[in-house]
Design brief:
The protein is of the alpha+beta class. 42% of the residues lie in helices and 10% in strands. It is built from 17 helices and eleven strands. The longest helix is centred in the middle third of the chain and has 26 residues. The chain is globular and about 70 Å long. The protein starts with 48 loop residues before the first strand and ends with a helix.
């Protein structure tokens, strides 16, 4: 079983670098913690040279580039809302601090997000180094934190298209993160890199959330440096091997929001697969990135059945619960049966199942308030519920069970949706993906004239690179890559 047990290894000589120590020096390096932290077991900066493939990372080179960044002797066009990304040689990059809006109360002026992200990237690296960009170093200068990572070389799905192998890899990664209690929270095209024909990597974990031992999630925004240093986060974060994942079955609190959680009404976990669906799958379908949208959606669901729902059912079934905990056993068994039902139904989805899943994805997209969609969500929600009744009346016995589960899921959120913020507008047929894809309703939305591919070509020219899978040095920007920001702005224009 894949777990996140040993997040960092203890330094061989008992040295524990600390973020805020040694303030009289320009850089914090090999600094010892105070005696009260001697048993932390966490190491943040292991050495000055780290083996990385065929080449070595040299900290002095990174420090020199950071000096140039701080003194504005170098510039970059790779920007996010909280910082910039600079290329360091051919294999590395540095995530710097330079918020777009320095007056915002949420502006990260010290690079605290870099410290938090360095922590979670190390957690993920120890689970599987192929899931996310690999962290290399965390450097402090003038009480600000700079994150050094591998330079991810690839292209974004929205720019290059995506094949079934990529989707398999995305869903495998999503499943592994889910059972280890790690939610990316922003799994869209700008935060996914296609490395080759079948490999992907996730970037930008700045908004991550962690599943606690109590069965609820806590945000990276709530994690302080001292909590990371003294192992508080490590102790609170769930570990499947220790059975802490079971806390989700003991937590009586309702799911906080439909859009970020599993579609399984008996499973109270945040789902990276769900996030990927309403962010990127929706994007592909709404912007006509595939010539056969029904086939694309059907293939996606078949892949999800095989690489997400089947292993999730197997994982949940193996969890050990005390025979005296009858309520938790019942909930766990219901969760298992629902995952098996999803796997069965999605392995050969009917047209009505495709419609239901597409309506669910669009509902989540509206609720997240893209392009003012929130005010249309409740009306859409009510029509979706009515459609489920209609689909169920036409369904086989197994499909009736699926539609019953979907209705149970949606009705859990009726009170949350039945508020003024989700009311006031109606989704036009030309905006409705089911109408557009299954009933051939023409879209009234003018498509973006400058295509993502053209934008990608321009980036290639700007970076003077001719490689097919260019090393766009975007790194892990706090709110998305440069291409992701371009995509966001143009989607906004598209209405």
């Amino acid at each position: 079983m894949i777990t996140a047990l040993s997040i960092f290894n203890r330094h061989a000589y008992g040295a524990y670098p600390v973020f805020g120590a040694n303030k009289n020096k320009s850089y914090t390096s090999n600094t010892y913690l105070q005696p009260r932290f001697q048993n932390t077991g966490d190491v943040f900066i292991k050495s000055k040279k780290i083996s990385f493939g065929s080449s070595e990372y040299n900290r002095q080179d990174a420090e020199k580039l950071i000096d140039d960044i701080v003194n504005r002797r170098v510039s970059t066009d790779k920007r996010g809302f909280q910082g910039e990304f600079f290329k360091l040689g051919e294999n590395y990059g540095i995530k710097s601090i330079n918020p777009m809006d320095k007056t915002s109360p949420f502006a990260d002026l010290q690079g605290v997000n870099n410290a938090r992200e360095y922590y979670i990237l190390n957690v993920i690296k120890n689970i599987d180094p192929e899931i996310a960009t690999v962290p290399v170093d965390l450097i402090q200068k003038d009480n600000k934190y700079f994150l050094v990572t591998e330079l991810v070389k690839g292209v974004h799905p929205f720019d290059a298209g995506i094949n079934n192998k990529h989707i398999q890899n995305i869903l495998k990664n999503s499943y592994i993160l889910d059972i280890n209690g790690i939610s990316h929270s922003d799994l869209q095209s700008g935060n996914i890199f296609l490395m080759n024909k079948d490999k992907v990597k996730f970037i930008d974990f700045g908004a991550y959330q962690l599943l606690s031992n109590r069965g609820s999630y806590f945000s990276s925004d709530c994690i302080s440096n001292i909590d990371i240093q003294n192992s508080f986060v490590k102790e609170m974060h769930n570990s499947p091997l220790e059975g802490k994942f079971l806390a989700t079955f003991y937590n009586n609190a309702p799911k906080s929001h439909i859009i970020g959680y599993s579609d399984n009404p008996y499973l109270k976990i945040r789902s990276n697969a769900s996030n990927f669906e309403y962010r990127m799958i929706y994007d592909f379908l709404s912007h006509n990135k595939t010539e056969q949208p029904k086939e694309f959606l059907a293939d996606y669901l078949k892949t999800k059945a095989e690489y997400y729902h089947k292993p999730m059912a197997e994982f949940l079934e193996k969890l050990k619960i005390s025979p005296n905990d009858t309520a938790q056993i019942t909930q766990r068994d219901s969760a298992v049966q629902t995952e098996k039902l999803f796997a069965e139904i999605f392995s050969n989805p009917s047209e009505n199942v495709l419609k239901s899943e597409l309506e669910k994805i669009q509902l989540k997209w509206l609720m997240n308030d893209y392009q003012g969609g929130k005010a249309k969500a409740f009306d859409y929600f009510e029509k979706y519920l009515a459609n489920i009744d209609q689909y169920s009346a036409q369904a086989s016995e197994n499909e009736k069970q699926y539609f019953s589960v979907m209705k149970k899921l949606l009705e859990q959120y009726k009170n949350d949706l039945n508020t003024q913020e989700y009311k006031g507008s109606v989704l036009a047929d030309s905006e409705n993906l089911v109408k557009r894809i299954f009933e051939k309703v023409e879209t009234a939305v003018k498509e973006v004239e400058t295509t993502a591919a053209e934008a990608g070509e321009q980036i290639i020219k700007n970076n003077k690179s001719n490689n097919k899978f260019i090393g766009i040095a975007l790194g892990i920007l706090t709110t998305g890559s440069a291409v992701g920001l371009w995509h966001y702005k143009n989607v906004k224009k598209a209405g």
